[in-house]
Design goal:
By secondary structure, the protein is of the alpha+beta class. It contains nine helices and nine strands.
């Protein structure tokens, strides 16, 4: 999730546990512990642009690293009494733990089980940026500053309820996806649904049938039946030697960076329809009405030219009015699932 949300979660969780003993210092400690797991963003290399995505949400986000990370966060308390040290460590431990667990609740993927496995856990309960979830935590922070522990606990409980709602709605969206694929007589081999920003009603759906990815928008109102809006279909990108190559490519064994990017994207990869030299992450799109990759790679066979990391994140926009129409059912492109 975004740094602000991580800091808020860490601060309010730490204060709820040790605010009476550490006062507002627990907020600072919790915020620091909630942010420090993202220190892995410093791992990058100009010669290897994929190094950053390989290690972000890696070892600093693993369950095994949480106790060590908490120890780092409590270094400022080395000269405190043993009692304050132990309370500070408890606060940092829980705050640090909130970071990888919240990241795992999103789509991006988090290596919770490193070093035993590099599997990326992405539960798709909540979008990477969720203003509602963040506002709940902001309310918890103000309650902590006012020393209102009951309100802090209530706000944290509401935040957990919001995550649980996302989990339940995800299952409904997946069920709708399965019915949609069946109505099309598609042999759905795998599928996922991803939450859109700040809600649990509109989901981005993607499933594989044969060598094709079908991408749709699925709407699951809390108390009504599901509907969908078809977006696009794109061929799955496969290793060289098994697909039609671009003019700049030559046959050969699968490129190492192709494999790394496929791992990062959980296999949801396709060529950008507007620029087939770019292999994109099909989980994310710059626009709702079609698929335009937010990020991807461009491979080169010249050993002196590193793989290009293509990042259009700054061009990504969410149209609040269009999203509101989807949420309220005023978008007439949505149809009942047959």
């Amino acid at each position: 999730m975004d740094p602000l949300t991580h800091a808020l979660a860490g601060a309010t969780i730490a204060w709820s546990l040790t605010g009476r003993q550490l006062s507002r210092k627990s907020l600072l400690l919790g915020a620091a512990a909630g942010l420090l797991a993202d220190a892995d963003v410093l791992i990058r290399s100009a010669a290897d642009p994929l190094l950053a995505i390989q290690h972000h949400r890696g070892f600093t986000h693993s369950l095994l690293f949480i106790p060590m990370g908490a120890l780092l966060a409590t270094l400022p308390f080395l000269r405190a009494t043993a009692d304050r040290q132990s309370r500070a460590y408890l606060a940092a431990l829980c705050a640090w733990a909130s970071h990888p667990l919240l990241d795992a609740a999103t789509t991006y993927g988090t290596q919770l089980f490193w070093p035993f496995s590099n599997y990326r856990v992405g539960l798709d309960f909540i979008s990477i940026i969720d203003p509602i979830f963040t506002l709940i935590l902001i309310a918890a922070l103000f309650a902590a500053l006012a020393a209102r522990r009951t309100i802090v606990l209530a706000a944290l409980s509401l935040a957990i309820l919001w995550l649980a709602t996302g989990a339940a709605q995800r299952e409904r969206a997946l069920d709708a996806q399965q019915k949609l694929a069946a109505s099309r007589i598609d042999a759905r081999s795998r599928g996922e649904v991803f939450p859109t920003i700040g809600n649990t009603i509109v989901w981005r759906s993607i499933y594989r049938t044969g060598d094709t990815l079908r991408i749709d928008r699925i709407r699951v109102p809390w108390f009504r039946s599901a509907s969908y809006a078809a977006t696009t279909s794109v061929p799955v990108a496969v290793p060289r030697g098994t697909e039609v190559l671009e003019a700049t490519e030559v046959p050969g064994p699968p490129h190492r960076d192709f494999t790394r990017f496929a791992w990062f994207s959980d296999g949801w990869i396709a060529r950008d329809p507007a620029d087939p030299t770019i292999i994109g992450d099909a989980r994310y799109s710059l626009r709702a009405e079609t698929w335009s990759p937010v990020w991807g790679i461009r491979l080169h066979d010249d050993p002196n030219r590193p793989t290009e990391w293509i990042n259009h994140t700054r061009n990504r926009r969410t149209d609040p009015q269009a999203l509101w129409k989807e949420l309220t059912g005023d978008n007439l492109t949505f149809r009942p699932i047959p």
